Amino acid sequence: MIVRTNRIIALAAAILCCCSAFSQTHSAGIFNSPKGFGIDWCSIRSDGTYFNSFNLYMDLCGVISGRTGTPGVKFDFCHDIIVKEKPVGQTRCLIYAGPGASVGYLRDFKSETMGAMIALNGSAGAKFIFSRGLSLDIGLGAELGLDISHKDSDPNAKVVTLYKNGLIRLLYPQLKIEYSFK
User: Fold this and answer.
1) What is the DSSP letter of 130?
2) What is the pLDDT of residues 70-100, one digit of tens each?
3) Which end of the chain is more exposed for a tag (fewer CB within 10 A), N or C?
């Protein structure tokens, strides 16, 4: 009896997941920015009210300047609300803004040590969806959070500070190139 109940619950959950998955357009691509490089996944709701964006990328703080050779790693999630949609020929232009969250293991501004980072973020930009399944997303993002790292003089002591790069890199553009599929 318990096995049958578990199977029914699992089947119902699978059906609900499939229905929600089919009601959205998904896209995958690359994330490019002076902040870092990585991969991107986006899910646009079929009614056109919002989309969710997930980015996993190498954080390049200190790498480009030559201060260090080790990049950090960062994961961003953003729930972007479509403020305006405007068709331009066969291209859809979406203007969006929304909140999200970020986590990572990286180096903060002028820090010599790597540390954990957790932050609330916000993004705004424009997404151009072309008729052949390609899309181009140009945006900006800011983060307000904490950096938890080791003290330079004592590796056993933890230091919690404001994540400075989240505000310093506010005006760094973010470019995403994605391929859409259902």
Assistant:
1) -
2) 899 999 999 999 999 999 889 999 999 999 9
3) N
Comparing 132 with 176, the larger pLDDT belongs to 176
Q: What does the pLDDT read at residue 162?
A: 94
Nearest partner of 165 among 148, 142, 149, judged by Cα:
142
Contact 40, 53 (CB under 8 A): yes
Q: Provide CB contacts within 8 A for 127, sequence distance 6+.
A: 51, 93, 94, 96, 135, 136, 137
In the block, tokens 């996993």 appear at 56
Query: What's phi and psi for 173, nearest 5 deg?
Result: -70, 150
Give the pLDDT score at 6. 53
Give the span between the Cα atoms of 36 and 169, in whole angstroms: 11
The CA-to-CA distance between both ends of the chain, in Å, stands at: 37
Cα distances (angstroms) measured from residue 114 to each of 3, 27, 55, 77, 158: 47, 32, 20, 21, 12
